[in-house]
């Protein structure tokens, strides 16, 4: 089977680019002297996880309990669930712990901490907990954990202290690096993330809580942090595939993007100089994250099947199953002469995590130099849902 | 099992509202004197299809070949694929036809018509084809099919004429009704859709092509068309569930929306007057279609578990697995006192087709008056992907 045999739309993963991205982050973790605990929220695949961990401790980050179960079943049993736990999921957590899986969960709420400890006591297990601290994104995390919010930080830790749970560490996510467009700004945010997380851990340790781990994360921060002294692990995820948004942030070149959507030209509208492909809102997602960047790439950048971008050609708008091709800012008309109906193209996604989630599997290729005749070397499954 | 037992985020379908929406459209089809060929692109579920067809001819519309196979396997064998066919899918089409499934496909391109006919001849089957005509949306369809574009219209029909295919009919979709906000404007567009489609069919018939069907579609058009003389069938889809966007167009009241996402409050940020739920971009989709309407409801309207909206409360922003609650236009702070951590809420989606696609199944309830203790009467599967 080769690319021309795939039904479209189909997710395509270039293993050569993937491997390069994985190697780069491993080198970064080594240079920074921290453990790499890759976040599997983007790839959601045991095959990708194995490559990301090759030669490393088998520890991962996940975003859903379904991922936790899936990876545990596939032998990866040192897991951090980095999204704030809702109490209704506690039965699933203690069940995994009862099976010997090392699953640490995350919270920033004292009342959730108490319920975690209670569930652990009832089940006869000790639930490891990462206390989330806000380092400026204002999404999750104890607000101002080292300057005004110490009471809440300690309240979460005390909620865990009555048995049934333990303070495994402090967890931070500087998602606001995504709003940056240069490395110095990212490095500044990464330094704030580092220092707040380390200081919060110090507060907890001085108050008598163990808190062995200091976990920070985000692909931009991991790539451009100047130092990570005091941090024990990083949790980047999207670095494996990269995407247009990460390219806009400066984390990669367009040529590093390992994930694309293979699509087929469906029709031409010569009178309006456009064409439609069979990848629409469901196939690409409606993520518009490049809309806030200097180069707005609408719903994705169009390349030929080998991966060479058509100049300025993007998916201008989407319906459920249609993508309309157009040039950035209407800079001319679509080159219909090189895009006959039935031609295969590839779409580089704005946001790999969102786009990949529409698919159950990846078609894996080792490069795309052979175009339509590039062999699909294997298919890798994904674990979607919750 | 009841609503409180569901892991969140979870899709919830209120069968009472669904049935009311289905009945309304059946009455409309009867009043207009046309066949109802419901579009299953939204529900993607055999159980919903059976209710939508109860007491009617078992004919449906689909948006993907995967849907076509799924519904055919479940006994619904009179199908129109209403998205332009790409030639690479022809093997799948003739395979279904060879199994006795009546599958009509759609195109607006003469070269695709020729390839369809060629595939039909080779397989010894006659492929029924709907010729798509543009009625003003400028997405798919022969442009200006009755005023300037007759040559292309007839070229598509001639491409089918050499055996192996037949002109089953003309197909139109006035998706630009979605840009309307009052019934008269929708009715005007629906009348243009009707007259262009009927006139295109007349051109084809006068040129000697059979063209028994004239198929139009869209929920707003089906609800507000003044007459459909000459039309044989309508293909609405989202009417089954409705959503915030359809409410904004005027197609339904908020209380008619049958689909929601059950979610759980994850944390509070009292210092900024907000909170987060465990439904983010993956659980809700990043569809922002209400952003172009008079009432912009961000990423969805928040209701309590019974379905009563919290005044002005919306999902203001999303990350992959986090939804941030906020009030429309910052009109105050989130009522944290009635949204404790662990509380169940429901999110009415902007766009049901996009939101439902993230899930493999529906939890079906008969009303939600009992709140958390509302029994889940059954689960219905969905067919996602391509």
Overview of the molecule:
Two copies of one chain form a homodimer. Chain A has 386 residues and is an alpha/beta fold. Chain A has two domains: 3-9 and 251-381, Lyase, Ornithine Decarboxylase, Chain A, domain 1, CATH 2.40.37.20; 39-236, TIM Barrel (Alpha-Beta Barrel). Helices cover 29% and strands 24% of the residues of chain A. The first copy, chain A, contains eleven helices and 17 strands. In chain A, the strands form two sheets. Chain A has an eight-stranded parallel β-sheet. Chain A has a six-stranded antiparallel beta barrel with strand order 10-11-14-13-12-15. In chain A, strand 6 (127-132), helix 6 (150-159) and strand 7 form a beta-alpha-beta unit. In chain A, helix 4 packs across helix 5 (110-123). The first copy, chain A, starts with 9 loop residues before the first strand and ends in a 5-residue tail after the last strand. The relative contact order of chain A is 0.16. The interface between A and B is large, with 62 and 62 residues.
Spell out the key features of this protein:
homodimer, alpha/beta, Lyase, Ornithine Decarboxylase, Chain A, domain 1, TIM Barrel, 2 domains, 8-stranded parallel sheet, 6-stranded antiparallel beta barrel, 17 strands, elongated
Total strand segments of chain A: 17
CATH C-level of the largest domain in chain A: Alpha Beta
Principal-axes shape call of chain A: elongated
How large is the radius of gyration of chain A? 22 Å
Task: Describe the secondary-structure layout.
2 copies of one chain form a homodimer.
Chain A (H helix, E strand, L loop, with lengths): L9 E5 H18 L2 E2 L9 H8 L5 E4 L2 H9 L4 E7 L5 H9 L3 E6 L2 H14 L3 E6 L17 H10 L5 E7 L11 H24 L6 E4 L2 H6 L8 E2 L9 H6 L9 E11 L4 E4 L3 H4 L16 E4 L4 E10 L4 E5 L16 E5 L3 H5 L4 E5 L12 E4 L5
Parallel strand pairs in A: 1-16, 2-9, 3-4, 4-5, 5-6, 6-7, 7-8, 8-9
Antiparallel strand pairs in A: 1-10, 10-11, 10-15, 11-14, 12-13, 12-15, 13-14, 16-17
Helix pairs in contact in A: 4-5, 5-6
